[in-house]
Amino acid sequence: MYAYVLVNLADAKEQTLLKELQDMEGVEEAHILFGEWDLIVKIKTGSPEEAADFVMNELRGHPDVRLTSTLIVAK
Cα separations (Å) of 16 from 3, 20, 57? Predict the structure, then answer.
C-alpha cells in the first residue's frame, strides 16, 4: 500500500531531512514543498500498521519534525 505523508518542520532544515528520507527503506519519493507543509513523502508499506509504525517512529521521532499528516492511498 502507498501513503503520502505531509511533514512540517520546527526549523528550516528541509534539505537535511530530505537527504535522510531518500535513504530510508520504504520511502519511494520525497520532495520539498512551499507553503504550510515543508515536505511530502511517498511511502510504500505492507499494511496500514506498518505505515503507522514508520510515521510514528521514523518521522515523528525525528527531532526536527513538528507535525505530520498521513494520507493513505485508496487504491
Answer: 22, 7, 18
Tell me: the pLDDT tens digits for 11-29? 888 999 999 999 999 999 9
What is the domain count for the chain? 1
CA distances from 7 to 13, 21, 31, 37, 75 (A): 12, 11, 10, 6, 22
As given in the structure block, the three cell numbers for residue 73 are 492511498
What is the span of the domain harbouring residue 23?
2-72
Which of 3, 6, 60, 7 lies closest to 26, judged by CA?
3
Distance CA(39)–CA(66), nearest Å, equals 12
Query: What CATH number does the domain containing 62 carry?
Result: 3.30.70.920
The CA distance from 22 to 41, in Å, is 9
